[in-house]
Every structure is written in structure tokens, then in C-alpha cells.
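User: Hi! Is it possible to get a structure for several chains at once, not just one? Here's what I have:
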Amino acid sequence: MHISIQAETLFHLFGFPVTNSIILGTFGILFLIGWMMFVASKAKRNIYTAKVDASVKMTAENPHDDKSRKFQRSLKTEERLNKERKRDGFFTRLALWAFEGLYKTVHTVIPNKKVAKQVAPFAISIFFVVMIQYYTGILPIVGEVITFNGTPLFRPQAADLNFTFMLAIVTIVATQVWAVKVLGFRGNLGRYFINPFKDPVGSFAGILELIGEFSRIVSLSMRLFGNVFAGEVLLVIVAYLTSFGSPALLPFLYIFELFIGGIQAYVFFMLATVFVGLAVSHGDHQKSDHSAESKQLSEAKV
Amino acid sequence: MNNMISLIATAETSAESGGVFGALGIDWKLLILQAIAFGFLVFILAKWVYPPILKMLDRREKLIEDSVKAAKEAGEKAESAAAEIASKLKKARSDADDIVNAAREQSTQILADSEKEAARRAEQTVEAARQQLARDVEAARKVLRDETISLVAMATEKVVGEKVDTSKDAKLIRDAIKESEK
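Assistant: Yes, the chains can be modeled jointly so their relative placement is included. Here is the combined structure:
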């Protein structure tokens, strides 16, 4: 059994250490880009929004008049569209469905439409990238199955703290950027530094908020890393302990891991969205007595 | 298990060299590389993947809105059509009632008229027949009278034996008959 907390360097390329997590992560990103491009090309075609003339549909009774022939034609079109939609495949439709749901979630969490439109691509990318890195991490080729100079060739990208740390830092930095954009530089500083003579409690809360930003980085990155790392270790250990019985048990754990992967991706996405939403609506919730914040938090919990 | 020990050992050695971050394998070069990769991914997705999907979603939403509107309109149209049909039916029914009533009235009128006419005509016929009868009776009576006169004349001639003047004869007989008629 070979368990390493950190991603192991396989070789150096132009001074950059190429770790085993980067190898799998690159595959993951390339696969994600290819797949999303495929989904986008499907979405470009008109099959989900083709119009079937409703008025023709309703008035067709006499089989010989012109409208009824039109109705037959529209029925045929609809059948063809349904077939094409089915041929699109479950996963394409799943991606479209997920995209739509996430997009709507971003818009409900961030009431400011302009910001929501900017945040949506970023947050949805986080969701998809976390999910794909989680799912490539539980492929059977990961781990000690394929080795390179004694170290595993593939390691889940999300089990590399560099990746999760980077995602968390990018999320928090992006939150700051949007907060400055909406509240202004001074307004953003006003979230953390409040005059203690005017509002002593608020001043203390502001400093807590500042510490909170750093703790968010740690919590975001450690949560994802811990889940992926523990998931992989769990699979390996269960495989070792049950040895020949593992084929009977491992599929259930794999399904469980798939489930956790979706959950973690959604959690990361939701937290990133809520952080931006909270930062952006800072000016509002002083007037509306924290209702926006509590609403967003309750939505996040759901 | 040996590997586990080696893991802890490596962690300790790297901890010596790079602190906590080193122990966890966090390397600023790799962090930057990851950030660039993520930025690249977001850029590609935001430029070529999300816009068409969003456009599709917008179109679909519009389509759904349109069809809901169309369905609503159709429902309203059907309702108004039903109301129109009901009113037309009502009107037709009342029209039919009027027509039937008028026809009934007319038919009773015609019946009464024809009855009256028939009665009148029957009376007329009876009257004509009566007159004819009277005329016939009168004619018969005249013929009978003439015949009687000539018979009486003949009988008288036979009895008397001589022929009195014919006109005298006739006068006598006519008087006699007049007397008998009295």
C-alpha cells in the first residue's frame, strides 16, 4: 500500500515539477473541455427549441383539409425531434440540465443581475471542474495500478492540495474583485474595518470577517482535498482488506463516491456563489436587517 | 505498512525543508500552474460553451412562454366560441318556436276557412237543387195540366159527341180545373 498526502513529482519539465496529479488533471481538463464543446454544439442545434405550431395542432379534425395535413407534418417533425433528442444521449441532457439548474441557482443567490451574469460562468466552471476531477480520481487506473519509476502515474487532481488551494484562493480573490467592483474600494474595506467608537460590536465582527476570509480558503481547500483523498484511500483499503471479495463490495463504494463527488462539486459551487453574493449585497443588508444574508444562507443550506 | 512509515518519513523531511506547506506538497510554482490552467478552462468555457447553451435556454424559455400564452388564448377563444354557440342555439330555438307557433295559427285559420267555405258551398248546392226541384215540379205540373185538358177535351168530345169549338172547350175545361183547384 502506498499512501502519500502530497502529489509526487514524476519528472521535471523546464524547471516545473510534473506531479502525478497534474497528469490526470490534464486529462480531466481536456476531457471536460471536449465534452462541454460537444454539449455546446448540441445546444447550438435547434432541436430543443424547435417550434411546433400549436394552433395547427388544435384545429386539426378533418383529415382532408389543409390544416390537418399541416398537423400531420408537424407531428412528423416532432417525432423526428424527439428521436434526435434521445440520440443526444443521457449525459448531454444531464449536462444541459445541470447547467440550467446551476445558472438559476446563481441568479437566486445573487439578486444583482449584472454580477450574477458575471459570476455564473466562473461558479459553474468550478462545479464542472471539481466534479470531473473527482470522477477521474476514482477511475480504476488511478493509484498503484500504473506506476512510473515506482510512483503511481495517476493521482486524483482534487487529492492534490495545490489544486484545491488554488481553487479556494481564486474563489476568495474573485469574491474580493467583485466586491470592489460593486461596493468600491473603500466600500469593500468597510466590510472589515468599522470605526470601533461608532459601532464597537460591528468593529469586532468586521475583524472576525477578515479572519473568516482566510479560514474560508483553508476550509474550502481542505474539505475538498479531504473528501477526495479519503475517498481514494477508502477504496484502496477496502480493496486490500476484502481482497477477493472486493468485486462484490467495491461497486457500491464507487457509486457512493460518485454521489459524494456530485455533492462536493455542488458544495464548492454553492459556497463560491454565496461568498460572492454576501460580499456584493453587503450594502443592502445593513438596510434590510440581515435578511438578504440569512436568506442566502438558508438557500445555501438547502 | 513500510510504505506508511516511509510516508511519515517523507512528510517529516519535507516539513523540515518547507514547513507545513511543504509537508502538504503545496508548491507556489504548481499553484500558479493550476491557476493558469483553471483560468484557461474558465476562459474557454465562458467563450465557447456557455453562450450557446444560454442562448438555447433563453430560446426554450421564450418558447415555453409563447406556448403558455397560445394555450391561454386558445382557451379564451374556445370559451367565447362556446358562449357564442350557446347564444346562437338559444336564438335558433326561439326562432323555431316562433315559426311553429305561426304555422299552427295559420293552419287553424286555414282549417276554419275551409270549413266555412265547405258549409257555404253545400248550402248553395242544396239551394240550387231545391230550386231545380221546384222548377221541375212546376214544369211537370204544367205538362200534367195540359195533358189533363186535352184528355178532358177528348173525353168530353166522346161523351158529348160533337166537337165544340176547340177554344171554347179549352176555356171550359180551364175554368173547371180552376174551380176544382179552389
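Chain B touches chain A at residues 1, 3-4, 7, 10-11, 14, 23-27, 29-31, 33-35, 37-39, 41-42, 44-46, 48-50, 52-57, 59-60, 63, 66-67, 70-71, 74 (CB under 8 Å). Chain B has a mean pLDDT of 84.

User: Great, thank you!
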